[in-house]
Structures are given as structure tokens and as C-alpha cells.
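#struct-queue
[09:14] JT: dropping the first one here, sequence first, then the C-alpha cells:
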Amino acid sequence: MKPSRFSYLAADSVDNAIDMMRENGEDARYIAGGQSLVPMMNFRVAAPTALIDLNGVPELSKTQDGPNGQLQIGAMTRTRRLETDPSIAKKNPLLSAAAAHIAHFQIRNRGTLGGSIAHADPAAELPGIALVCEADIHLRGPRGPRIVTAADFFKGVFTTAADNRELIEKICFPHWPPQRRWAFKEISRREGDFALVGIAAWFDINDAGTISGCAIGAIGAGDTPMRLRRAENILRGSVPSIDLFREAADAVTADIDPLDDIHASGEYRCEVAAVLVKRTLTEAWECSQ
């Protein structure tokens, strides 16, 4: 199939893009890499009256250091850059590692960080990383700028806290301590497919040898990316060990509610999520030894 008729507009600044959105109404859509929106248009799942192209907006592709060691990444930053840029890998290695699992390199060459987060597919890697890293989403629209935490941004399948007229300017990741333990794992039917389930985790160890802070996130396990709070509470304040990680894994099913679909049952996804939590935490710990 082919998309329904639409107007094409190329913005050259954020303000210009917002003006175009204001002039074309709520049925207009911003387009970044187009790796999700264009297929939806071809199947007429989405039928925008106008596309506002953000590829000519240079400020949306900037990556810079923010206050207190924060990493600020422009929404139009390509997934391939997240994967290959050594400065990004140094400042947030979990983000870089997860990006390598996304689809195939041709798609990573075009897809963007902001586009993936705005699309909010619950099985997508980048929304899950934004959540587990406690990132802030910087939005701009006709009513001005605002900041929404990743925890408040994802509302449901393909649904976010962003207004239809708002675009994502940048995503800001907090400081990443150099000694932080982390790992990312996912299971998919084939390489490049969306994850049936994926787990991202990090934890910090204090001078007493106990876990002082941690986060565990799951993708493909519900209507949005999810934090596994029960498992996190088990880790926090404890000494890392295989038995501890097993106990955390056993608590996973109380935090998730995956659906059945043509690819896997909810029961299977629950079982896989528990296994992946144990493996992810173990890998994070063993890689630090």
C-alpha cells in the first residue's frame, strides 16, 4: 500500500518546525528518521495531512555535556552514532550497548533517539534505556519548553505524555559513575527483530561492599517499558551474589504483565524475563571482577 496524500515541509530550526505545526494543525506530524512512521503511513495506520521534516534542524543533532556530568543528546542523533561514538559509550555504556541490538545497521543509520522515544514501542530498546537510566525528555511546542521524566513520559503502547504539537529537543541522561556495573540482554526470534523480552540493569557498590543504588528495566513485558521495583528493592543494601540475583529474578513476575501475541505467550515472556534478570545481573557483576 501507499500513504494517503500529505504535504511535505522541511524545517530549518526548532522554532520554524513549531510554526509549521501551528499552521498545519494537529493532523500534521514531525518526521525524524522515518523508520517507524513511514511504514505506518504505507499501511495507513497513520495518515498525517502534513509531514514536518526535522532533518535540516542542526541543533537537534548536537551532543554535549550538561551540568553535573549530565549527557545531553539531541533528538535527531542517529542510532548508529549511539552505537559507535566512543564518547557516548564512555559517558553511558548501557545506552551504547543497547543501541547495537536495534534492528539492522541500515535502520540504525537512519533511525533516531528522539524518534524511537516519541514512537514509544514497548519492545523498543531506547525507551527502555531512557527509563532505566532515569533520563529527562526535553519537549518544545507552541506553549514553550517543558521537561518530562522518562518515568512519566511513557503512558501506553505508542502513547506518551507529549502533546501532538510538541517535538523532542533532547534527552538528558544523568552522570554515569565510572565504576558502575551494568549489562543489557534481550531475546528475539531472529537477529534484528524486536525483542520478545529485554532487560537492562545497573548497580553501584559502596565502600561497605553493598549495593547502594540500582535500576532494572524490562522491554516487551507490558504496555510500556517497565521498572522492576521489587527486584530493585531486593538488591538495594545487599552484598552482590549469585543467590541474591536469583532471588531478584524470582520477584520479576510480580512486576510485569506481558500479553500473548503471535510471537510468544505472556507466560513464556514472564519466564524469559526472570532468566534474563539473573543473567544480566550476573554479567554486570562478573564483568567488574
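[09:21] JT: and here's the second one, same format:
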Amino acid sequence: MKTETLAKIAVAYSGLVWGLFWIPLRELEKVGIAGVWATLVFYLVPAVLLLPVFAWRWRRHVEGGLWLVLLGLSTSVPLALYSFAMLYTEVVDAMLLFYLTPMWSTVLGRIFLGERITALRAMSIGIALLGMVVILGGSGGWPIPDSFGDWAALGSGFGWSVASVLLRLGNTNHALELTTQNFLWSAVAMILAAALFAQTPAPALGQAAAQLWWLVPTIVVVVMTGVYTSMWGAPLLSPAVVGLLFMTEISVGTVTAALWAGEPFGWRELTGVALISLAGVLESVVEVWRRGLARS
């Protein structure tokens, strides 16, 4: 299998993981760890788990220098902003504003990487956005940012587009270092967020520790692998393609919410999932078709 194909699968898997993000957060909320504290726990646990890895490979981090730190910041800050968006605006609005990402990525890729904006790429983005609106838009129309949460969502999407470009430019760092930097800086960002914006007292340490029996395996097996695959795959792909593939989050979130949270799943949701899935594979399918024609 081609490296590019593996990279696409890796990034799509990462999007899938973030589509499951709501499940452990919901479980933490059930035991009284909610809002910014739940997000802090979610990022702090992998950061602590990765400290031995950081110590083991510290020379690689030194070799990566300020550029590696910049990459870590560029991938962690958008995640922190997205978490704020989920807390301070409607979930639907947050997702609609964040997933303008393929548009930002296409423009930035053109400016900084010299990538062509093909008709097929524009079609893929249009199909993806249509699918997102079908699932999330309802009758409310597209949200106009007018609150901190809205602007956080918009900034998060733009920030991830910038991160995708930087990852593409600086793809000499190993994915393990990128993953470690991502979680360490994400934890720092959420500690600051908790200190500045928490509206409720911090949960008792024992209350959080009692959840580690299920939270640690979930984070190691699902979350950390999802971030690692994105840190490996994103530098190998066009930022616009990365943005499109990450939209699997919406599809997975819609399906899992229907299965486990009793959310509605009808023709609208099915159509939206199909459109987003089509957008993610359209360029690859057309490429395979063209190769078949060339060989015949």
C-alpha cells in the first residue's frame, strides 16, 4: 500500500477518534467532573504518561529545537480553543465553525506550499460542507460568530489549518516527538484555562483518581493512538486533504451519539454521513480510476 494511502487512513482514523471524544467526557461529567475540569483531566493524563517517553528521547526534543516546540504549540492551541468552544457555545455552532478548516487549509496551502486548487479539490470541499450542513445545520442557518465560544471555534479551525501547513513544511520530526509535544502543551494550555476560566471548584483528587482504571486504557489505546496517527500522517498530506479527512469526526460522532446517547439518526443524518464520506475518498477514487484508464 502506498505511503500516501496509509497517511490518509491514519488521518481519517484520527478524525474517527475525535468523533468519540464526547463519550469519556460524558462519563466524567456523570461522576461530577465537568466542563473545563473534564477536559483538563483528559489532556493531563496522557501528558503525565508521556513524561517517561520525553525523558527517554530528550535528545530528539533538543535536536528539534524551537521548531519542534512551535509544532507542538500549533497543534495543541487549536485543541484547547476547540475545548473552549464546546464549553461556551452550542456544540452544533462549534462544529460548523471549526470545520471551515478545509477552506482555510486550501487557501494556506496555495499561499505557503504552492498547491494547486483543482476543480476536484473544490468539489470535495463543497460536498463535505454540504454534508456537514445537512447533519448539523437544521433550519438555523450558518452561525455568525458573536460570542467567545463562537470565535474560539473559528480560531480553532483556522489554527489547525496553520498547524497542518507547518507540519507539512517541517516533516523531519518523528511522530512520537510531535505527539509528546502536543500532549504536553495541551496539558499546559488546559491548566491555564482551568486557572483562568473555571466556573466551579476543582474536583477532589481522589474523585479524579477513581476514574483512572478506565480512563488510562481508553486514552492509551484510543486517544494517544489517534493523535500519533495524525502526527504521522498529516505531514505527508496536503493540508486541505487533512481537513477533509478529519471531518470523519462528524460522521462518527453522529453515529455513536445515535447508538449510545439516543440522538436521532434518520435520512438527514444518513445523507450527511454519506456526503462527508464521499468527500473524503473522492480524490483517491478518481486517482485510482485515472490510473486504471492509463494502464488500459
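[09:30] RK: nice, looked through the second one.
[09:31] RK: The chain is about 80% helix and 0% strand.
[09:31] JT: good to know. The longest helix spans residues 58-88.
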